[in-house]
Structures are given as structure tokens and as C-alpha cells.
Specification:
alpha+beta; four-stranded antiparallel sheet; 14 helices; globular
Length: 533
Amino acid sequence: MELVYLIAKEHANGEVERKALKELYEMYKAPFYFVAFGMLQNDKKAKLAAAEAFKRIQESAYRFDESLNAQYWFFDVLYTLCANASGTIDSSAECYIKICTELTASEIASITGKKNSEEKKILANEENIKRAEENLLQGAPEYWEYVAGNESTGFEEISEKERNKTEKEKTIQKRIFNFKRTIAIVLVVVVACAAVTIGAILITKKFGSDVDKNAVHEDIVLQFNNSIAAAELNGDVYYCGEDAIYKYDTASKKSSKISDDFAKEILSDGTYIYYRNNADGHMYRIDADGSNKTSLCDKPGVAMSIYKGEVYFSSGEGIYKIPVSGAEFSQAELLLDISNDDNLYCVDMEVHSSGKVFFAAGIGKGVHCITDFKGTPSLEGIFADEVYTLKSDGDKLYFDCKEASGKILLYCFDIKEYNNSENTQRVLPTVITDASGKNIELVTGSFEVNNGKIYFAGEENGVSAIYVLGEDKNPIKVTEIPKNEANARKKLVISDLHIFEGSIYYFCSDGKAGGDRAFFEYNMNSNTTNRIF
């Protein structure tokens, strides 16, 4: 698309007038706004989301593959941004996309994360069509100042006032939403959006946007609210379920609540349990029985990792480390300053045995390695596309990436080769393939790497299963949702997994906010399965 090329050229040359970008803005400002408003239900947020989408298109135009559909890319960027901000899927959004583009039903379905688009159903509704056409004719409000301005839109940030709502405010808000639910079925969408927002508000403001766009979509299961934080300590498994932290005794096969906190990340150093509490965003340490809760820092954090007696974490201003015993934020060691880039976040982090820190930076920001040139922390990009989950095993770094086609591929990055390259040559991640050279596709984005073997979620005869890829590179089914779990086999898919002490702990979800969930333990030695909840 020539217009995309011109936008890339403008951005590279720093042209003030930005004629090509303005032309694109005039073409899509209305559908962008109304799609965003349909998902976010807020005029200001819709403007900022739409403006941010134009900015990201401008920034990434130089990487656009001309063989791809530009319209698909435009709306995929917008839809991802809105969903990351806890915008819920809205049928009217599909209607606007269909009316204003030449995209097919399957392309629209892929953008919105559905298996099947509802466009025919939407277009058959005369009221929906009439409303959409009237809105488009009236035009969208102007927001070019946000697009053209050099300042960040701050779209993915949430104000302190909103993030720190009192219990009274939350109760009132909940009553309002419940009341709306009884008025009309259309407002269920708004309620669902609010429900997701409650879980995401506390992790968004300057802590990183670690919400995958498919989190709120009903027909595809990826990793948000469809994943489970878990860690192993003294042979037992600690996990977050039902808005609390539980300890699963692997001997008695029983679970007990050890904390009322709702943890986003759960880590262990072999002595304590560490986690980030969604209620306040802060990091804590507890004993194995849940006692002696200790705040690690007076600064909220995200993307936690533990390495050699130190806790690594990120905030909106940078990536830091403190002792596992905790420290004031003023004493934290700054590893990387990212305050000069409001769109750069650290949403997941892995610390390699060499001490190098790798992190995923969210939409369009890829994967980076923190480097140190002459005492000044810097970063080097090793992957350009959108990544949210990093896992390391030995000298390999693995991550999943959803392609424009909708396929989720697994990549591997050779850290040892990277460390030995000494910047003389670029080391690139490679796609994991089987023995025949076929790409390994992750059905839900769920995978784990253990002792060189890759475990991932797949499907056989309509039943969700776990496969392993070993040295021979031939995928072998390890286990599946038990046959005696008829309801789970029919409705749920495996959306997250962890491996501890010869057992696979896998989490199943129906992909719906507040929907059905199940957590299983599969012992690879005895070939037995136990349902934890």
C-alpha cells in the first residue's frame, strides 16, 4: 500500500506536515473512533485509543509487509489496543469494520479473536446498521491533535484515582452495573467490560500492559484470566485460584488457602513464596504456610523474576532489582530507564544464568535484552513483533507470537550464541518446527519447556491435550483432559501449564470472563491425573 510507504517515509524524515498520515486519518478517523468507543464506552478513551493506533501505525509502517492486507493491519492494531485496555468485545465494532473496509468475514473474525465472525447476524439487524450508518454520516469528533502531537497519548495509563478506588466506590459501581444488567441485554457488554477492568486496572498504570487482546474474547483461549500463576516449594504447589493463594499438598492431594491476596505472579526461591498482589500492585513475600507477609518495596512492580538472591521487577519508569529481603524504592538498582518511551513496557521477564535480562515489551515492541555499554544500561532488540510470554531453559529463550494469520507460533532464541557473538553478527530467533519441518502451532499459546523438552497444548478429536516435542522433534501426546471429566472435555481447553517434580499442572478454561475453569495434576511417572479444582 503506497500510503503506508509514504507514512514510513514521513516518519523517517520527520516531516512536520505529515500529509500521508493525515490522509490516512481522514479515511479512518470515524471507524477507528466508533470501534474504540464500542469497546471502551468512553469518549475520551476512544479518542486516545484511536489516536494511539494511528501513532503505532506510523511508527511501524517501515516494517509493513506489502504482501499483507493493510486494512487488516490497521484494525488489528486498534482492536488489540482496546482489548489491552480491558475493552470488551462488542458486536457493533464488527459492524463498523465491515461497513468501512473490504475485509472478509474470516479476516474480521481473526482480528476480533473469534472462530467465526458474526457479521451476517449484525448486518441482518437493521437497527444496528442504521445506527452505525447514522454515526458514520455524522462523523467522529476530531482527535488529530493527539495523533500529530509529539506527546504520548498515555492511552494505556490509568489515573491513580481510578486505580485506587475505595471499597465503597467499588460497591456502588458494582450495584450500578447490576442494575444496568436488568435494564437491557445490550448493557451486559458494558458490565463484562467493567468486570474485566476491575482485574486489569491495578496492573495497567505504569506497571505494564500485560493483557493479551484475546483475554476478553469468548471464542479463543489465550493467556489472561485463562492462565494460572503457580510455583513449587518443598514439593508442594502454590497457585492462585478463586481470588486467593492456595497451597496444594502433593502427598495428600488437598488444597488449603494460605492468603486472601489475589496474585498475578507467584515465584519461589526455594525458601519463600513471592508474589504481586492485584489489590495494590505491590510485591510481597510469605512463608510456606502463608505467614509473615512482608512487603518487598514501597513501589508497585510487575514482571517479577528472581535470580541469585535478588528480585527483578519493572515499573513504568524502568526495570530494577532489589534484594529478596526487600528494600525501599530509593535503594533499588536501576537496570534500564524506559521513562523516555511511554509506549515501552516490560510485560514479562527472564533472567538468564549469565545475568542478562530479557523482557517482552508488549504491542509492536518485541523482545529486548538489557545491555551495558560503558556503564550505561541500554537495550538491544532481538525480536520485533508482539510477544507477551517468555520462558527460558538452559541457554534457550522461548516465546510465543501470534501471526497476522491468527496462527500462534513458538520461537527459540539461542542465548549462548548471542552472548558469544560479541555484537559481530546478529542472532535471530527461529521458529520451532517438527522433524518434517512443519511449524509447531500453539492452539492456545500455552507452553512450557523442561530439560530441553517442549510441552504445549494441542487438540485431538476435539479434546484438548498436551504434547511434548523432544530431541527427535516428533510431537507425542502426553495426556489429555480425563475421560471421566465429560463436561470439561466438552467445554474446556488447556490454556496454561507448569511442570514441577515430574508432574504437569495444567489449567483449563472456556475462554469466557467468569466462565468455567479447572486445574489438573498429571503425574508423568504413574500416568495418573488428579483434579485440584
